[in-house]
Amino acid sequence: MKFGYFDDARQEYVITSPTTPLPWINYLGCENFFSLISNTCGGYSFYKDAKLLRLTRYRYNNIPTDTNGRYYYIKDGDTIWNPGWQPVQTELDSYSCRHGLGYSVFTSTKNELTAELTAFVPLNNNCEINRLTLKNTSNQAKDISLFSYIEFCLWNAVDDMTNFQRNFSIGEVEIEGSAIYHKTEYRERRNHYAVYAVNTAIDGYDTDRDSFLGAYRGVNRPIVVEQGKSTNSKASGWAPIGSHNINVTLQPGEEMSYVFVLGYLEIDEDNKWEAPGVINKAPAKEMLAKFETNEQVETALDELKEHWTTLLSKYTVETNDDKLTRMVNTWNQYQCMVTFNMSRSASYYESGTGRGMGFRDSCQDLLGFVHLIPDRARERIIDIASTQFEDGSAYHQYQPLTKKGNMDIGSGFNDDPLWLIAGVSAYIKETGDFGILEESVPFDNDESKAQPLMEHLRRSFNFTRTNLGPHGLPLIGRADWNDCLNLNCFSKTPGESFQTCSNFESGKAESVFIAGMFVRYGKEYAELCKRTGNQAEAELVLAAVDKMYDAVLENGWDGEWFLRAYDAFSEKIGSKECEDGQIFIEPQGFCVLAGIGVKEGLAEKALNSVKERLDTKYGVMLLQPAYKDYHLNLGEVSSYPPGYKENAGIFCHNNPWVSIAETVIGRGDRAFEIYKKTCPAYVEDISEIHRTEPYVYSQMVAGADAPRHGEAKNSWLTGTAAWTFVNVSQYIIGIRPEFDGLVVDPCIPSDMPGFKATRIFRDATYNITVENPNGAQKGVAKLVVDGQEMSGNIIPFVDGKKEYNVTITLG
C-alpha cells in the first residue's frame, strides 16, 4: 500500500498519512547548517558537525518513536493539536507533508482551522526557517493560543547524553523581546550560541523544560499548553528549551503568518560580550532581520528552489518510464547531494555521534555528485587524501569539523587506498582538471610531509601491490568493503578451536574483491600516469594489473563463480566447498565490471550464478546460504541472524555492481531488472513491506532467510545512492565522462524505444537522442554529432564549444 504519491511537477513526495511505517524524513540545508525533519516534524539541527555542534536534542530510542523535533502546539478551545500530528497525536481532519528539495511543507486542518508549516534552511545563512500560517475557514471568530517548542542540546551530543552530573548544572539562556538565546558554556569555552526567535511580539515564553512540560509529563501533553499560558521560566541549569506563546484572534477567513528562526552564531573572542555576562547579540539580530517578513521568507525559499533546479539540470532524461525519469532527474541525484553533505554521520539510523566522514564512503559518494558540484568535489578529494598515511593506507574516518582522522577507528581497511584513485579519476574525467594531481597534499594532515596528489595515488596503488598474500591476491587487513568480514581476527593451532588474535595485522587473509578493484582502478591510475608523462610508471602498473588478473583467474575462480576471499589460514570463503556462504555478491559484480573473465566466458557464468543462487524479488542477496551459526574465523558477518545485514541480507549498495556487470556483457534486460528491484520508486506500492521512504535508497533490505523479507533499513546515507546513479546514468542510460570526451553507450531493456537526455559536461550542453527501432539491448549502430556521422561511441570534447546535438541509433 501507499502512504503518499510523487508530485513530479513540483519535485516533491506528498505524504498523506502521518502514520507511515517508519519516520519518512527530509534534509534541510546544503552548506554548513543542516536539519533533519520527519513527516511528523521530528528531527534535529546542527552546524557542520552533528556530534560537536548539535543545536537541538533528539532521542533515538524514545517511545513513541521520533522525538524530539520542532513542535507547534495549537490550542483551539479545548482542542490541542500539531500541524505535523506529533507529539500530541490528535486526530486531524486532513494532513499532508510535502518533502521537496531542501524544504518540507506540512498542511493540516482541525475544526475548520488550517495550519501550514514551511521549513527550510536558506542559502548562505546558518539557520532553519519555520513559517507557520494559520487560517480560520469557519464562519465564526477563533481565539487561538500558539506555543512553539524546541529542546536545546548542550552542543557536544555525546557529552549531552552522558555527562549528567555536569550538564544538569550548566544550562543558561537569555531572553530579549521575542528572541531566546541559548548560551550554555558560552562564558567558558564557546565562541558561539544559538537563537530561537519569532517575528512578532509574544505573550509569554518558557526556557526551562520542566516548567513547560510539568512533572512526569512528556512533550505529548505539556502542562503549559493545557493551561494555555506560559510561565516565563528562565532555565538555570537543568534542560534549556525555547518556547514562545502567541495568542491570536482570527476572524472568519482571516489568516496570520509567523516566522520562527533557529540560528547558529559565532563571535570573535574580543567581541563576545555586550556587557558583563550578556552575550553579543548583534550577529543574531542581523540574521533575524533578513527573515522578518513573508516576502523575505518567500524570496529565500524561491532562491533555494532555483538553486536545486539549476543543480539538477546538469543531467536530465526523458523516457517512457515515469519511475525511471523521476529517480534519475530528481531523487537519486538529490540523495547523492545529501550523502555528499552527511557521508554516514547523521540520519535516523546514524546518530551523528560516532562515524564522521568515511574515507571509502566519501570517495564512493563522490562518484555520484562530481558532475553536480565539481569544485566542492575537488575540495573533498583534498580533505580525504590528507588523512592518508605515508605508506598509502589511511584513516578509515575523519571528523568533518576538524578534518582530522578518527583515532578510535584508525586504519587497516585495505580497500580504502584504491577508492582514492577511483574518486580522483572520476573527478578528472568530469572536469579535465589534471592540475589537481599537482596539488600539495599532506599525509596524516602533517604539512611537513606534503606531496603532490599524484604521489598519494602512487602510494595508494603500491600499498595494494606490495601487500599480497600467498595466492597473489591483496591482503584484506581488518576488512575490505564489507566491514563485517573480519578474516584476520583469529588464530588457529592445529587441533584447537579458533581464538581471538592479539594482532590482526599478522593475518594473511586475502580479498578477491580488492583484486577486482586493483584491476579496475589500476588501469585508471596507469592512464593518469600516461597522460602526465610517466610512461614507465604506467607500464609497471599495467604489468602488476595483468599479474593480478591472472591471479584471480588461477586462485579466485571456483568453477561457476568468483571466490570471495581466503581467510588467515588459506581456507576458502565463498566457495562451493563451504557449507554456508558458498557464493558472495561482491566479487561477481566487481570482477566482471573490471573486465575479469569476460573474454574467457567466465563473466556470464558468474552472473548466471548470481541470478540462480542470490536473486530474490526484492533484490540480490549478499551471500547464500546464510550462515546458520557464528563462525569465529569470519568475524561479524556471521553474528547477524540469517537474512539481515551482511549475513545474506540484500545490500543495496552492491546490487548496482551486478547491474553494471550485466551491461558489460550486454544484457540490458537483466541490468534493468536488477536496477528496478531496489529502486525506491518501483517499490512504492509495497511501502507497508519496504517501510522506508519510497523516494530514497536504503542500505539494506531483509533477505529471503529473514522473517521480514523485503523490509528495508538504514535509508538515506548509503553508497547505494552514488553507485546506483553511476549504474543508471553511466551504464544503463550509458552517458559517461571519459578523459577525452563524453561516451554514449546505452545498455537498455529491449522494450525501451529510446530516450532523450541533456548532459552538462565541462560547461557544454549535450542534447542527446537515443533511438532503438529494433529492440536492441546494447550496441551503437550509428552516432551523429551536429549532423555529421562519427565512428565509435565517444563524442570528443572540443574546448570552447558550448552545445552538441547528438543522435544515437542502437543496433
TrEMBL record:
Ranges where the Glycosyl hydrolase 94 catalytic domain occurs: 307-734
Gene Ontology MF term list: carbohydrate binding; glycosyltransferase activity
Domain Glycosyl hydrolase 94 supersandwich: 11-292
Keywords, sorted A to Z: Glycosyltransferase, Transferase
Signal peptide: none
Protein name per its UniProtKB record: Cellobiose phosphorylase
GO biological process terms held by the UniProt record: carbohydrate metabolic process
Alphabetized CDD domains for the sequence: GH94N_CBP_like
SMART domains membership: CBM_X (SM01068)
Classification via InterPro entries: 6-hairpin_glycosidase_sf (IPR008928), 6hp_glycosidase-like_sf (IPR012341), Gal_mutarotase_sf_dom (IPR011013), GH65_N (IPR037018), GH94_catalytic (IPR033432), GH94_Enzymes (IPR052047), GH94N_CBP (IPR037825), Glyco_hydrolase_94_b-supersand (IPR010383)
One Pfam short name: Glyco_hydro_94
